[in-house]
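Researcher: I'd like a structural prediction for the single chain below. Treat it as a standalone chain; there are no partners to consider.
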Amino acid sequence: MSQRLHFDVHDGAGEPVLLLHGFLSSRAQWLANLEGLRRFCTPVTVELWGHGRSPMPHDPALVHPLGYVEQFEYIRTSIGADRWYIVGQSFGAGLTLRYALEQPDAVYGQAFCNSNSALEHYDGTNKTARARTISDVLLSGRPLTELPIHPLNAKRLPAPVTAALQQDAALLQPDAMLRCLTQTRAHLSARSRFSELTVPTLLVNGVWEKSFQQTVEFARTNLASLQVVELQGGHAINAEQPEAFNSAIELHYRSCLQQ
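Model: Treating it as a single chain, here is the predicted structure.
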């Protein structure tokens, strides 16, 4: 049997909504959102390969974004959903955008939040300073806790979210994280195809992350139908402003159901 991503279906009052976290995170990314989301949808939290309770497969094809597309389709059909709404955060946004491009008939709407990697111009050599730092730490074998984006360095998240993320971070393995960078991130960006999206798309922008604002302008320019909601917060805007984030998702989710 092929290896599968770990996922959890949370009881809710509406249609399924896929929730995909970012690099070095886990299902705990959505801990502050679940109660509010369950009032109008059925949250389905999924964990990236090598994160949380998901294994790290040896087959590079599974780790490729197209491998993720197949995994999402497996989850959708296994829970009996004809279509669903999808949400991607940070690294996960590149994967949910790719899924919407490859399987638009399975998705009636989508949202994504702060993620430069999802829409960057990336040729394998033009790494950002942060990406170079991450690569250097992983290649040197230094502890993952030295990474600036490690949950130990979280400053603005609710205490229960921070605690759960730090607990799950203990499960991370450096070699698995390196493969996420070299085998997934190298193919992650949806920049060249972003304008091809036909699925109704919402961008929830944490405006305090200054490095992301140029990406927001690219998204606005290249997808005329894009809706943008701007919130006061940073990279992990879903956890920093859970009520406002949930409200934005609910409004878009309900409009997509009516189309």
